[in-house]
Specification:
about 300 residues, alpha/beta, five-stranded parallel β-sheet, 12 helices, 5 strands, binds adenosine-5'-triphosphate
Length: about 300
C-alpha cells in the first residue's frame, strides 16, 4: 500500500503497565496527547491540518518525581533513539564557546538524519535537565559569567531553526518554572508546561508496588508488609524517595543475615531471607522526604 511515511510509530509490544511509572496516568496522557500524538500520524495529514509538531515541552515539579523516567519511556514507546540528556549546571561549567558548541552538537544528529531521510527520519529527543541553571531570566545578575545567556541564545536559535526539522522534541526539566526566562516558554519553543507533582496516596501505592515487584513475585517479601499502610505513612515522598525507602528496608534485611566476625559472613538461613514490615519501619526512621513538608508538619 502507499502509506505515507511517519516520523514515529508506536512500538508494537509496548505496554503502559510495563513502563514502571506510578501515579502519573493523567500526566502521561496529557504529555502524549500534546507532544507526541501528532507524530504517529502521516505527515500528509499533518500538512492538511496546517499544524506543526510540538518542538518543546517543559516538565516541572519537585526532584525525583519521574520526569526523566517519563521522557525516556515515551521515547521508547515511539521507537525514538535513546534521548540525549544534558545537565544545565554541567553546561555552565564550560567556557562560553565550548557550551555553545555542545548545544550545537546536540542537534547535529537530528539535522543530519532529517536531511538524509526526510519524513522517514526517526524522532530525536533532547532532554535538558535542570534547565533553570542556564535559562534564568536573561541579564539577571545570577547568570554571572554570561555563559548562560549565550547558551540560551544558542538553544533558542536552534529551536526556532527547527521549523523545517520535524524530527526533534526538546524536553526541558526544572524544579522552578518561575525561574525560567519567559522567552523560552513562548509558543514554538517550550510551549507546553506540565507539572509533575509529588504522588498522592494512590500514586504511592503504585510506585511502591513497582519498586517491590521483584521481591514480592520472588517471595522475598514477608507477608506482614502492607503496601497500603506504607503508602499512608509516606506523605510527601517522591518516587525516588520511595525507591530509597525500599532500598533502606532491604539493607536492614541484609543486615540481619550478616554475622560480623565469622568466616562465613552470612548466616545459614539466607535462603529464608525476607524483607519484613519491621525493616520498612526502620527505613521510615532513616529516609525522609526533602520537599513538600510544611513547617507545621515538621514540628
Ligand atoms: P530530577 O528532577 O531530580 O531530575 P526526576 O523527576 O527526573 O528528578 P527521575 O530521575 O525520573 O526523577 O526519578 C528517579 C528515580 O526515582 C527513577 O529512576 C525511579 O526509580 C524513581 N521514580 C521517580 N518517580 C517515579 C514514579 N512516578 N514511578 C516509579 N518510580 C519513580
Amino acid at each position: 500500500s502507499n502509506r505515507a511515511p511517519t516520523t514515529a510509530i508506536i512500538a508494537p509490544n509496548f505496554k503502559f503497565e510495563d513502563m514502571g511509572i506510578g501515579g502519573l496516568d493523567n500526566e502521561f496522557s496529557t504529555i502524549f496527547r500534546r507532544a507526541f500524538a501528532s507524530r504517529v500520524f502521516p505527515p500528509g495529514l499533518i500538512e492538511k491540518l496546517g499544524i506543526t509538531h510540538t518542538k518543546g515541552m517543559m516538565l516541572y515539579g519537585p526532584p525525583g518525581t519521574g520526569k526523566t523516567l517519563m521522557a525516556r519511556q515515551i521515547g521508547k514507546m515511539l521507537n525514538a533513539s535513546e534521548p540525549k540528556v544534558v545537565n544545565g549546571p554541567e553546561i555552565l561549567n564550560k567556557f562560553v564557546g565550548q557550551s555553545e558548541e555542545n548545544v550545537r552538537k546536540l542537534f547535529a544528529d537530528a539535522e543530519k538524519e532529517q536531511k538524509e531521510k526526510g519524513d522517514e527520519s526517526g524522532l530525536h529527543i533532547i532532554i535538558f535537565d535542570e534547565i533553570d541553571a542556564i535559562c534564568k531570566q536573561r541579564g539577571s545578575t545570577n547568570s554571572g559569567t554570561g555563559v548562560g545567556d549565550s547558551v540560551v541564545n544558542q538553544l533558542l536559535s536552534k529551536m526556532d531553526g527547527v521549523e523545517q526539522l520535524n524530527n526533534i522534541l526538546v524536553i526541558g526539566m526544572t524544579n522552578r518554572l518561575d525561574m525560567i526566562d519567559e522567552a523560552l516558554l513562548r509558543p514554538g519553543r517550550f510551549e507546553i508546561h506540565i507539572e509533575i507533582s509529588l504522588p498522592d496516596e494512590e500514586g504511592r501505592v503504585q510506585i511502591l508496588n513497582i519498586h517491590t515487584n521483584k521481591m514480592r513475585t520472588n517471595g522475598v517479601m514477608a507477608s506482614d508488609v502492607n503496601i497500603e499502610e506504607l503508602a499512608s505513612l509516606t506523605k510527601n515522598f517522591s518516587g525516588a524517595e520511595l525507591n530509597g525507602l525500599v532500598k533502606s528496608a532491604t539493607s536492614f534485611a541484609f543486615n540481619r543475615h550478616i554475622k560480623v566476625g565469622t568466616m562465613a559472613g552470612i548466616s545459614d538461613d539466607i535462603n529464608s531471607m525476607k524483607v519484613s514490615r519491621e525493616d520498612f519501619m526502620h527505613a521510615l526512621d532513616e529516609v525522609h522526604p526533602a520537599f513538600g513538608v510544611s513547617e507545621e508538619e515538621l514540628q
